[in-house]
């Protein structure tokens, strides 16, 4: 099994090298891999005690960010090394000012793991959510460097909890984790079922992050002017299947206003979206003062969606007709009902919002229309959801501090 794993890592590296000339993501990853060790050697790494935080991609970074920033505030003697596996995380956050060093994680070979850890010599290591790189975990364990898994979440269908040789091999990887900080009791129970007791239920550090974002939200007078006295639906991080059912809803309800912030803001995608909609829509980048003349607004820039949600009466989160929904908490922090497509079950916070009847999955345009109409028309229903969201958020904020208290024995 170990041989198959090592071979798989090498095949992945080869595939990225072959795809690099035609695939931008593969090219970024391949180039980033080559630059890691020269980058680290050029820095004054090792001059101070160092903490290494690893995030697979951008979503995990948002979970790790509160931890990084809390460490910097409460334990200022440490430098922070931040690594990413995915180009979509690294390329967007490579200039993150709080971390002292930022690079890709070298591919998980035994030689890379030894070389990397010997070079950076971390005192403590945090992997975010679900990264299980066998050779890194083994080398950290061999050197007695503690690794903490933060905001971890486990599901019964994962291989760790199955029977057979492969499952036992994967379970053995988990032996390299010093402590599991898990999001929910189910994850704790699953770890206990395979013999682990080194866990604490802390919740998800993303709650801390969205609370901070909301506290520092931007004032957007143009959005306030666009909303006026109308009921406003904000659709965030939308993909084409989401936009198709939203367009159908706009045909049936002529009174609401809608803001759509597509996941992809390239010009070709924005033009496709404009052509799909049932009436002319304004674009945020060029609307200026005529926003009040439009019923639909397209956000064709990045960085303001989390502040836009504060103006919404109802939010729709995209991605649920594809690989999975985007961040529901950015909207729920403003105590509003949230809708999304059917692919949400891998996201614990979304499942809990649905269980509490604060969020509503929809399978098609008819379900979306029925649910939106009910939420828009019933002020008392939205008021009750607002109270529930406020309670839900207050119950979950604070995971970051629980982690720090356990790790640093505060």
Can you offer a commentary on this structure?
The chain has 410 residues and is an alpha/beta fold. The protein has two domains: 2-212 and 398-408, Rossmann fold (3-Layer(aba) Sandwich), CATH 3.40.50.11720; 218-396, 3-Layer(aba) Sandwich (Rossmann fold), CATH 3.40.50.2000. Helices cover 48% and strands 15% of the residues. It has 18 helices and 14 strands. The chain has helices at 2-19, 24-42, 58-74, 87-93, 110-120, 134-142, 165-173, 185-193, 206-215, 221-227, 240-252, 267-276, 305-308, 329-332, 348-355, 365-377, 379-396, 399-408, and strands at 50-55, 79-84, 101-104, 124-128, 147-152, 179-182, 199-201, 232-238, 257-262, 282-283, 296-298, 314-317, 338-340, 359-361. The strands form two sheets. A seven-stranded parallel beta sheet has the order 3-2-1-4-5-6-7, sandwiched between helices. α15 links the parallel β13 (338-340) and β14. α11 (240-252) crosses α16.
How are the SSEs placed, and which strands pair?
Layout: H1 2-19, H2 24-42, E1 50-55, H3 58-74, E2 79-84, H4 87-93, E3 101-104, H5 110-120, E4 124-128, H6 134-142, E5 147-152, H7 165-173, E6 179-182, H8 185-193, E7 199-201, H9 206-215, H10 221-227, E8 232-238, H11 240-252, E9 257-262, H12 267-276, E10 282-283, E11 296-298, H13 305-308, E12 314-317, H14 329-332, E13 338-340, H15 348-355, E14 359-361, H16 365-377, H17 379-396, H18 399-408
Helix pairs in contact: 1-2, 3-9, 3-18, 5-6, 11-16
């Amino acid at each position: 099994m170990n041989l198959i794993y090592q071979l798989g890592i090498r095949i992945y590296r080869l595939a990225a090298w072959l795809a690099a000339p035609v695939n931008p993501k593969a090219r970024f990853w391949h180039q980033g891999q080559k630059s890691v060790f020269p980058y680290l050697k050029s820095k004054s790494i090792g001059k101070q005690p160092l903490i290494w935080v690893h995030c697979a991609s951008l979503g995990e970074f948002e979970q790790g960010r509160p931890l990084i920033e809390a460490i910097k505030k409460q334990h200022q003697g440490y430098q922070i090394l931040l690594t990413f596996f995915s180009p979509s995380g690294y390329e967007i956050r490579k200039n993150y000012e709080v971390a002292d060093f930022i690079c890709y994680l070298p591919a998980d070979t035994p030689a890379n793991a030894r070389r990397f850890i010997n070079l950076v010599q971390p005192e403590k290591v945090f992997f975010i959510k679900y990264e299980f790189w066998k050779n890194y975990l083994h080398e950290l364990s061999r050197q007695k460097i503690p690794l903490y898994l933060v905001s971890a979440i486990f599901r019964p269908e994962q291989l760790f909890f199955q029977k057979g040789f492969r499952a036992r091999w994967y379970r053995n990887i988990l032996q390299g984790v010093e402590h599991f900080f898990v999001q929910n009791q189910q994850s704790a129970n699953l770890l206990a079922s395979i013999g682990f007791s080194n866990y604490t239920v802390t919740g998800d550090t993303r709650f801390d992050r969205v609370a901070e974002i909301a506290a520092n939200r931007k004032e957007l007078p143009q959005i306030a002017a666009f909303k006026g006295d109308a009921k406003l639906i904000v659709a965030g991080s939308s993909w084409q299947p989401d936009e198709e059912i939203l367009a159908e809803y706009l045909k049936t309800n002529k009174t609401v206003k809608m803001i759509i912030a597509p996941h992809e803001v390239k010009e070709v995608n924005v033009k496709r979206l404009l052509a799909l909609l049932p009436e002319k829509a304004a674009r945020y980048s060029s609307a200026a003062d005529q926003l009040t003349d439009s019923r639909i607004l397209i956000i064709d820039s990045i960085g303001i969606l989390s502040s836009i949600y504060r103006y919404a009466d109802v939010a729709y989160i995209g991605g649920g007709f594809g690989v999975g929904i985007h961040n529901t908490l950015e909207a729920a922090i403003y105590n509003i009902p949230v809708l999304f497509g059917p692919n949400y079950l891998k996201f614990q916070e979304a499942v809990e919002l649905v269980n509490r009847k604060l969020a509503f999955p929809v399978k098609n345009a008819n379900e979306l229309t029925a649910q939106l109409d009910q939420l828009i028309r019933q002020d008392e229903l939205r008021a009750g959801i607002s109270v529930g969201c406020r309670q839900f958020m207050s119950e979950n904020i604070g995971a970051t501090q629980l982690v720090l208290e356990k790790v640093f024995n505060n």
